Amino acid sequence: MKLTLILGLLPLALISSATTAEARYQENMDPNCFVKNLESDYGLVDDDAKTNQSALLQKAINDVAAAGGGRLIIPKGTYRFAKVYLKSNVHLLIEKDTVIKPHWAEGTKTVVFILDFEDTSGKGPRQRGNEFIENVSIRGLGGRFIVDYSDRERREDEGIRTVLCRMVRNFLISDLDIKDNFTVYCGLTMTPTRSRNENVKHWEISRATDGTIRNCRIFNASPGYGLVQLHGAQSLHFEDLYAKGGVTLRLETGAVGYHTAVYDITAKNITSENGRCAVMLGPHSANNGLVHVDGVTSKSSTYAVTIGRGNVKKAEQARNPDAKPGRFADGCSIKNIHAIFGQDAQVKTHEMMNIPEEYYDDLRLRKVTKFFDGPSIGAVKDYTNGTYRVDIENVTLEGFKYNADKKILTPEDARPGKWGQALRKWKADRGIPVEPKRASDSGK
Fold first, then answer.
1. β-strand 247-252 against 277-282: which pairing, if any?
2. Residue 16 CA to chain centroid, in angstroms?
3. Which of 338, 328, 324 is nearest to 391 (CA)?
4. What is the distance between the alpha carbons of residues 429 and 307, in angstroms, rounded to a whole number?
5. Residues 361-414: pLDDT tens digits?
6. 3-state class (DSSP) for residue 281
């Protein structure tokens, strides 16, 4: 009776909350639409994730789509799924406190939910056309649901994403907790088409488009990844996101390919704790559009915001010898930034010349040795060197002994010297084996 009451009332609340002024997703889930329950209608078993029930979930999604769309409800339990494709006009409602564990073979990479057109032609992703799905959502029913792979030890040859969004328009992801264990890849990834067609301007969409991602969290994210990564996106809004570890909102457009870039991105209330930063801009070789962020908080993270200059990856240079360093459009803005000092940040070893020497004894080298656990450095790091402009407004710092009067740090604020040499000396002084010098150790 309680679940029936919730289901009867919830759609109206979901509709009102999904159509806020800044939301890009436009609610199309009819409160009186077609409804199926994965347990009562399809025989889903709450078996503590002992068996892979992905085929069952996929059949139910396909059936709802074939009926013209509607809601598919997953009742509370613990289940195992992977590589599940959402279909147009299907809304996946997952009851609060439901736990989803990925079906993930050893030595492989996987994804739990895929928001992309499922190509069954056999041609392969690089030959596919402009097909896409639209009007879809994955949301908690009555509160957050959980995707949990915290029992999986990190391996460099493995990787996982909770949700991959590619050729999808008008989508919502909300009320999600991800329990990570420093694995490879971000929890949520937005990416462009993999088509080899160089000219996609006439396509309706060529990347994740018109979406809202809100009220999502990740715990124990890898410093090299985080909650959300954007390689390809158009008109997305992010709100009330939290990451413990890694980067919360990673606008690092580093995917190798024809169509990597993001445009018209907005975000509000982005928080990082014990990580690298809450918001990162790193264009690599992509020419990106505008990004506007309002409300950034870091708690014991290296920075609240980092803004980097463009650079071309070796793989991209090999694919496109004419590739040049990318940028974000002038006029991007990040405002209302608050950084709280702490000693449990994930600090990249490249930061050696930015870390106050007083804190050197507090650094703890992580298992992934490109990073320390250590002190926060500052609020905003801007290393664009004038290659593009991001307007920064209203920056405050709390508890900082150093850099308290420097709201925006630039290369000129680093100590003279080379970070690689400083790192080798730090290791030698503490009896830690020192790797041979590399060419990349020079500079900042």
1. parallel
2. 25
3. 328
4. 32
5. 999 999 877 999 999 999 999 999 999 999 999 999 999 999 999 999 999 999
6. strand
Report yes or no on whether pTM surpasses 0.85: yes
Sign of the torsion angle spanned by Cα atoms 223, 265, 268, 92: negative
Whether the CA torsion 110, 97, 217, 61 is positive or negative: it is: positive
**Which residue, 304, 372, 322, is CA-closest to 343?**
372
State the residue for tokens 């992010």.
Answer: 238
Per DSSP bridges, beta strands 90-95 and 99-102 are: unpaired
Residues in the chain: 444
Residue 314's CATH number: 2.160.20.10
Residue-level pLDDT at 2: 36
What pLDDT sits at residue 206?
Answer: 96
Residue 217, helix vs strand vs coil: strand
Q: For the chain, what percent of residues have pLDDT higher than 70?
A: 91
Domain count, the chain: 1
Q: What angle do CA 429, 341, 369 make, to 5 degrees?
A: 40
Which residues, at least 6 apart from 272, have a Cβ–Cβ distance to it below 8 Å?
242, 243, 247, 248, 278, 297, 298, 299, 301, 304
Helix (H, G, I), strand (E, B) or coil at 149: coil
**Residue 38 in tokens:** 């994965």
The dihedrals phi and psi of 374, each to the nearest 5 degrees, come to: -175, -160
Domain of 95 in residue numbering reads as 2-441
In angstroms, the CA 112 to CA 103 distance is: 8
Tens digits of residue pLDDT in 113-148: 999 999 887 776 666 689 999 999 999 999 999 999
> How far is it, in rounded angstroms, from Cα 67 to Cα 80?
26
CB atoms under 10 Å from CB of 159, counted, come to 17
User: What is the reported pLDDT for 6?
Assistant: 39
174: left (phi over 0), alpha (psi -120 to 50) or beta: beta
Mean pLDDT of 178-184: 98
* Residue 228 contacts residue 221 (beta carbons within 8 Å): no
End-to-end CA distance of the chain: 61
Amino acid at residue number 328: F
Residue 256, helix vs strand vs coil: coil
Which of 224, 390, 200, 365 minimizes the C-alpha distance to 293? Answer: 390
